[in-house]
UniProtKB/TrEMBL annotation:
Coiled coil: none annotated. It comes from Erpetoichthys calabaricus (Rope fish). InterPro entries: C-type_lectin-like, C-type_lectin-like/link_sf, CTDL_fold. Pfam families: Lectin_C. This is C-type lectin domain-containing protein.
Length: 85
């Protein structure tokens, strides 16, 4: 899922690694999606047809970090459950 800005998202069905998906989204759109809250999570889950997709969250050096660095202080994960199959 790529973030287009102002809560607009696009789902690209091409199978890519996380790094390639991030590069693609940054070149064609803005970045991989940041999930700000449960409502956004549910919206994306429905829009993707419940298919697997990359989000902009990554675990590196014993910590979680958003691809969109400006989002690192804004997203609250308290109680948020990312749906997966």
């Amino acid at each position: 899922n790529c973030f287009l800005g102002s809560n607009n998202y696009t789902f690209e069905s091409t199978s890519l690694s996380w790094e390639d998906a991030q590069r693609y989204c940054r070149e064609k759109h803005t970045d991989l999606v940041t999930i700000w809250n449960q409502a956004v999570n549910e919206q994306l889950f429905l829009e993707t047809g419940q298919k697997s997709s990359w989000i902009g969250l990554r675990h590196e050096n014993d910590r979680w970090q958003w691809s969109n660095v400006s989002a690192n202080t804004g997203a609250n994960w308290g109680g948020l459950v990312i749906k997966s199959r």
